[in-house]
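Continuing the batch. This is chain 6 of the set; chains 1 through 5 are on the previous pages. Same settings as before, nothing changed between runs. Recording input and output for traceability.
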Amino acid sequence: MGRPRTPLLDRQRITTTALEIVDENGDFSVPQIARRLGVQTGSVYHHVDGRDGIIELLRERVAGAIDVTTLDLRPWDAALESWARSYRAAFAAHPRAIPLLMTNPVRAPRVLEQYERAVVLLRDAGFPVAEVMPVIVALENIVLGSALDMAAPTAMWEVTEGAATPRLAEALDAVGGNRADRAFDLALHGFLAHARGRLAECTGA
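Output for chain 6:
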């Protein structure tokens, strides 16, 4: 038999397959990837640096959907808000990948470059260097928490007739169908207001 025109394995196919498995199960194993691709487990290791290498490929794939040009906007708070919204949309598309990615150190160069741009944005705005990472991490907490919330059931609170929670039932009825978006807007705007205040304190503006 002649050699196949399209290679059976490459990093792109491994990443796509791993992400499919994570979207289904919340985790993956190298043997699972191999079985789905119809190859030996050892063949997968010829193309990636083990499980950690695959996780970084997943990180690059998911984060690749974030619009990094938002970090070129000015003023800085408009850039952060636009980046946060794009970041949320990218991770909301793969919510089951969030716990996996957030419990492993970030090593992927293209993802690190995105953080570099965020750091430059904040430093240019006047944030002291010691304030920069707390601002970024706090923003990520809001973004990733909201991305998970978007994957939650619409009715997260099921109030039964026998429950003594009439005010809760009233609040749930009033919130409407865009609870996750409204909660994200509230948290994001509150965060940005606080960040503006911190910058003013630090710079005396």
